[in-house]
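During the reporting period the student researcher (J.K.) took over the structure-prediction task from the postdoctoral fellow and processed the backlog of single-chain submissions. One of the processed entries is reproduced below for the supervisory committee.
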Amino acid sequence: MIQRPLGIRRARLPSVFVSAASCAIVLALVARASAGEDLSPPTTSVIPAPFLAGSSSEFRRLLDLKEYQQAVMLAQQQVEKFDQQPGQGGENLQVALMNLGLAQYLNEDYVGAEASYLRVVSLIEASGRLTSPRLARAQAGLATTYYAGKRYDLAAARYEQAIALARREQGLFTEEQIPFLEKYANALTELNRLDDALRARRYILRAIERKYGAASLQYAEELESTGRWFTRIGSYDNARSALRSSIETIEELKGDNAAELISPLAALGDCARRQLLDPSAAKVATPDDQRQSIFHDAMAPVLPVVSPNTLAIEGQSSLERAVAIAGRQAPPSQVQIADVRTLLGDWYQSRGQTDKALSNYTLAWQAAGSSLSGGKPVTELLFGRPVLLAYVPPGSWNRYAARPAGEVVVREAQVAFTVTARGRVADPTVVTDAGDPRRGAQVLRALQTAAYRPRLENGVPVDTAGVTLDQPFYVPVEKEAEGPADAPPVPPATSGG
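J.K. obtained the following structure tokens:
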């Protein structure tokens, strides 16, 4: 039973419920590196490796060097060459276009990549080879391009086609479909199609269970991924259940001090932190509100209420255990230590214990040293900018979110401010009030609840000016016609310190 309150849509809410992803990115990179996975651009994990079939060694070399513009030019030359061979260059032209689409995607030319993949799809369909594996890969490449461009509706539709083609060729529950399914689930989540996203994630679990078994590290890793997804959508009880199962499976397989425990323990701590900060979580903590959840099963028992004190104990102990396990590895991964130390600092910062937070941030910076992750300094990934950790949005921002789409519009108010060395907001000003001064005033008041992970320079927390926050408001169409009202007086915002 997924618990998500009615009326909460995935507008771009600038809060802890939208991923402050730097730590998660680093921890995921560490986990992938420890598993022997290449951390180069996503030619395999995001776009399947067979896209490179038939490509030249020079094209591959340019991708390895991240010389994407040069790769685009080389692929374009190949396309032009085979375009001049009507009737003879069909297969070669398709391969060249696939390579061009990949290079354009990596070069963030999503318009160009879209055109290349659409042409491949058209060529294959015109040839009548609708069962060609290349068609599934072309559809997946097109979907991934749409996803990168945040065109999630188009991405979901193309992923559906790619998955259907892959199943026709490979059968059900094959591991090769998982990269498509993961992105498909993410696109569905962005579209608020949470039932469909859940079905996709369950399909992934079944595919992994079928190949590796439920008592495997692969299954435990997917349980963690599912738990993180539940956290993302605010279904915290389901998240904790999945993460605990992941931890228990790893303990049985590898022992109580296994490095594989660090990531799910960190995820469990992050789940507790977000739940404690989520205003909507308090609503679904009561039996009556649980039964109103849009995912509620009327025949299922109501889950027991978890007290904030229990959540706080579980969250902090999980993060502390992750830190301890990271330090006991032989040899220890300094990147991993930096990451979990940062997460523990985030815990304390979100709980208002700034001195403990800053102490952990300093230790994280020292552990990171000059380490790189994904080609970037770990210190930059973790502390290169302020990261929003806690924020209670104005209570009225989603008052009309449950109305049909044609009856509301989304307007965004933007505020600018300085994040102090202690992670607080100072000197806020309204950049735009979303068409009503009252909304700007509401955001200024809400900013007093904000807590940030501060930016660090040379290991020292510093003030950061020019930080902005965009706060959406669901506005009824009829109210738009009424025009703005005068803003009420706003009490001075706290300056942090």
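The committee noted the following: Residues 389-482 form a domain with the TolA/TonB C-terminal domain fold (CATH 3.30.2420.10).
J.K. will present the remaining backlog at the next meeting.
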